[in-house]
Amino acid sequence: MKDLSEMISGMDFAFFGSGQHAMSMEGMKKNLGNDQVLFLDIRTNEEVAHVSFPFARHIPLSELPDRLAEVPKDKLVVAFCSSVFRGAIAYTYLLSQGFEKVKALTANTEDMVQAFKPGPLYKS
Model-level pTM? Predict the structure, then answer.
């Protein structure tokens, strides 16, 4: 387990400027179907009941500590939620638990829904 204070101390201008912590919507689309990438949907059950993403593993953020064994450490884990906020929390939590390959998606649910409409899907 990594020390949270040490982790946060390393999150400086260069860290955020490099983008190593994040994946864009374009990055997500490029990695769909990549078996070395796990998209982790950390939205609540209620949110998923209305809009789901079948390519992702769903573990609500509130359940993540109890279900951590379901998240593989040998894959890149990309956490996402409806507004990016919880994805950042999951990102930091997973790093603190020894996960080395973690990113947070910079897109929100609306961005994702737009990307998976027939027109954008057909063009990609």
Answer: 0.89
